[in-house]
Amino acid sequence: MSQTLRDKGETGPQEECGNRLAWFLTGVMIGATAALLYAPRSGKQTRQFLTERTHQGREAVTETSKDIADAGIEMFERGRKIVEDAADLFERGRKLVRG
User: Fold this and answer.
1) Which residue, 5, 39, 58, 89, could crosslink 10 as a Cys pair with Cβ 3.0–4.6 Å?
2) Is the pLDDT of residue 39 over 80?
3) 86: which residues sit within 8 A by CB, 6+ positions away?
4) pLDDT of residue 12
5) Residue 13: what pLDDT?
6) Residue 29 to residue 46: CA distance in whole angstroms
7) What's the sign of the alpha-carbon dihedral 36, 38, 39, 42?
8) Per-domain residue ranges of the chain
9) Helices (H) and strands (E) in the chain, counts
10) Average pLDDT, the chain
11) Residue pair 64/20 in contact by the 8 Å Cβ criterion
């Protein structure tokens, strides 16, 4: 399945979350740089502003990490269900062959 997604140029849920996180972190770095370069505030006010923004960024990363973990758990559960269904089908097939 993942090979099919790659062939079509599509990304899976894990790659999509990773891309979002990378773009978010890139935006945080660009924003922090711009804030430092064009800060109309004093040094103390700028440090306070950066501290607040860093806290917001940390919260966003934490939330994104939780979303990624939840998606991983969901995928694991789906995979486990597929394996259980395959085992049931195998057992039914084995019973049919034995008669």
Assistant:
1) 5
2) no
3) none
4) 65
5) 66
6) 15
7) positive
8) 2-98
9) 3, 0
10) 81
11) yes
Closest CA to 17 of 79, 66, 82: 66
CA trace torsion 78, 83, 84, 87 (10° rounding): 160
Distance between CA atoms of residues 75 and 68, nearest Å: 11
| 43 alpha-carbon distance from chain centroid | 35
Largest pairwise CA distance in the chain: 85
Cβ neighbours of residue 32 under 8 Å, at least 6 residues apart? Answer: 50, 53, 54
Tokens of 3: 């090979």
Structure tokens at 73: 């758990």
Q: How confident is the model at residue 79 (pLDDT cuts 50, 70, 90)?
A: very high
What is the number of other CB atoms lying within 10 angstroms of the CB of residue 43? 8
